[in-house]
Amino acid sequence: MDIELRRVPLPDADIPETQPGIPSREYEERTRALLAAAGTDWVAVYGDREHSANLLFLCGFDPRFEEALLLLGPGERRILIVGNEGVVHASIAGLPLDVALAQSFSLLGQPRASAPRLTDVLRDVGLRPGERIGVVGWKYLEEAETDDLTAPAFVPAFLVRDLRTVTGTDPVDVTAEMMHPVRGLRVHNSPDQIAAFEWAATRVGMAVLGVVRGARPGMTEMEACAAMGYAGEPLSCHPIVASGAPGEAINGLRSPGLRRLRPGDGITVGIGYRGSLSCRAGLLTDEPDAAFLDGVVRPYYAAIATWYATMRVGETGGAVHAAVHDALASAGATFTPMLNPGHQISHDEWVHSPIRLGSGEQLASGMVFQCDIIPTPLPAGTALNCEDTIALADQDLRGRLARDYPDLWRRIEARREFMTSALGLRLSPDVLPLSLANAYLPPFWLSHDLVCTVAG
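Structure tokens predicted for Peptidase M24 domain-containing protein (456 residues):
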């Protein structure tokens, strides 16, 4: 595959102003589906500030300073248990539910006189001895990691203890019903959810490219980060701007600091809004570095192009994994992907990934994926990355999106045309780029419209 640098101006951004919402009926359908899939009398869904994605998917609520628990039970009972400050915040939930106070979820030192014990609250809302409880945490263990797949692993121990105390039965882990890469509820997205994620992806892509275009020698990393133009969008991770001089190690996960950028630095920016993360990395120079271009950029973009060409409904994750690794090997790359070359994304940055060695798990319509090929190792003081979000949609889902969200569909069609005509990429009709930034990679930041393309 012949990779060339060409000057390709980015089209004018078409950023949606109105943020699509999730209808209450869809939240209700999700809660019913989870309870049915769990096969238990109740399901208890745990969440906190860092681990809010399951709650957001099920009811649109995210804890801010506290923990929270969503109980789903017989007769379509839906109870959101929160701490002191969550009582008012619970009004943002997107479906009808009861709110109960459990002050153990409150911050230390706050009042606890009204509802100090979670066991009493669980009894008051209707849990009874002998009932079976499914627990949803923020991850689950797989067979190679444990001898007991039924024991809840990623929830606070006191929660499991109190559920057992009230019911007299052992809670079972049903997190896979939410997060499994094939059957998990959260990996299958409706038109409304895809529209909400596209709103985020469009904005986060332009925020990242704003940093790429705005970064200049002499700025601090924090000054460069300000070019993202943050407007209060809900974040899924801490913003990243990290740099280093040739020969210096670059920590690509750290927050921006006061280091001043210098010509020739390696630099990376990563920003995540709920539903999408975008990342770019390269060198802070305007003249292409021939060794970096031939040894790193060309093989890397060949892998990016291969990823986009391989993604489609019905393909296996193992085939995508193999295609990316084969593309790098064919290009003579001295690096490989640090992690999975792509994964499912949702309100959190990483749900799961069927894209792994030998996986027979099939990619399905409605799945939203992150192109996430992290080249490792690279020479110290250099960086390269091109990370963006797509949705996969079969003909039926594409038709529903075009009907229900015509402006979104117009943006997607324009992005596909730009990616194929201007960047030279091949795309299945199933691939819906959720951002104008998709696959737009300027490896030398001071020439921000000099980007990677596929020749021919």
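The chain has two domains: 3-8+186-454, 40-173.
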